[in-house]
Amino acid sequence: MSARTGQSPGALSDAAEGSLLPPLEVALAYAEFCGGDRGEWERRWLAANAGSGAAPRRGRRRTVVAVAGGVVLAVAVAVLAIRPGHEAPPPDAAGGSSRFFADDDAFNQRHPRPRLSPDSAQMVTGLLATGRVEVYTGTAGSLVYRATSGTRTYDVTPRKHVGQWGANPFEGAAFPWDPSWKAPSPDREWTVVIGPDGRAMECWRTEVVNGRPSCEWGAVSDTRGSSVSEKGQETGSGLSRLAGLITRADWKAGRIDHALSFGTPDNGGGHVLPAVGSDGKGQGPWRAGQFIWLDPSYDIDADTSLKPYERMIAKALQEYGAFDVKNAGEFSFTSEFGSRAPGDNGEAYASLGHIRFAEYLRVGTVEPPS
Fold this sequence. Notes:
The structure is a single chain. The protein is built from nine helices and 19 strands. A five-stranded mixed sheet has the order 1-19-15-16-12. Strands 3-6-7-10-11 form a five-stranded mixed sheet, with no helix packed on it. The chain has helices at about 1-5, 10-15, 25-35, 40-50, 60-80, 120-125, 250-255, 310-320, 355-360; strands at about 115, 135, 145, 155, 175, 190-195, 200-205, 205-210, 210-215, 215-220, 230, 260-265, 265-270, 285-290, 290-295, 320-325, 330-335, 350, 360-365. Mean pLDDT is about 85; it is low at about 55-70 and about 75-95. It is α+β, with helices and mostly antiparallel strands. β6 and β7 (about 200-205) form a beta hairpin. The longest helix is centred in the first third of the chain and has 23 residues, at about 60-80.
């Protein structure tokens, strides 16, 4: 727990003992560790602290002990009770790199001369029409497990869509699953398991019966190679769900050294590089693989309204841009499940409302590699 929260073992032990009201950051560490709402538990701590601030009197120490122990115990019990039915892997499982895929992949390249679409301004207006742009983080993030060489593997055949959507993408692939992992709740449709060989099993509607995993459909990608899936298709664009994901390592480093991914409700049936397909219908103006970026004239460092995580995302969009990978109900970005964006107050859907998208966001395409 110390490694995951950044708090010392002694501080966590003292807080669990309950003899004194723990420091705010220690109490919040418990809440965040268990998946609780940081803002809610900060309010509870402040209330407890105010209640312990009166002049000493007989029985006072017992009251403080009860309040202190109650805050920590309540955090542990309450947030565990509302915790989603799965757990994120420990933060050190990701290794030192914040990137997936090879260095020459489109998501790991800067694109200094993107081709501007003639209707860029209108497309930006449509993209922002919902009035809110967010980054999914914490319990709203994308679930990624990382297997080791000791993780048991299984032969998996999709429960549905074989033939209709193509051949079994998991044929010949060892699907790792640890019995301590929990299948996601029904509203979290995708789980990604990265094997020790770097291959990613991307599983739609994971179920675990008697410890054995199964998927309704899925795909296999190679994190050592291209962001285009090797087999199967988990996004309409044919790109891995790991492509453009903001990782724990990104947030920890304070910098995102890769392009991001997003979706739009206005995808038509066409696609451009790096996408290899599209699940769009109708005549929407967007094509899977479409590129967006923030104009370099935007002085992000001088924009004091930006929260730390907004600044990180804005800089990534200015330096690397983002690719349209799927149909989606809203314009948003996604980070790894269980990770925390710096400065987001523990929100699962952190607003990006301070980034000046309407003024500086551009839409276009990138040139194919020469």
